[in-house]
Amino acid sequence: MGRGRAKAKQTKVARELKYFSPDTDLTALERELRASSSTRSAESSAADDEKGDDDDYDDYADWASHNR
Fold it and tell me: CA-CA to 64 of 20 to 30 Å: which in 3, 13, 17, 50?
């Protein structure tokens, strides 16, 4: 394909992705979000047990101070 055709195809695909709204299964989405949030909360509580009383932002503050 030539350069113009490739750009036209990319534009077509991008437009389809932007404006195409498939039927969303909201119940499946809700189940997925609940499962991931319960997994995340279990992981964060385990991490909190390991850290103790440390602030959640301490890691970011350390990273930010080293990357200046």
Answer: 50
| Token representation of residue 8 | 């036209």
Question: Quick one: tokens of 13?
Answer: 């695909």
A 10 A CB-CB count for 20 gives 7
pLDDT: which is higher, 6 or 55: 6
CA distance 25 to 21: 12
pLDDT in tens, 5-39: 999 999 999 999 888 877 888 899 899 999 887 77
CA pair distance 38, 54, nearest whole angstrom: 22
Cβ distance 18 to 10 under 8 Å? no
Place of tokens 């909201």: 26
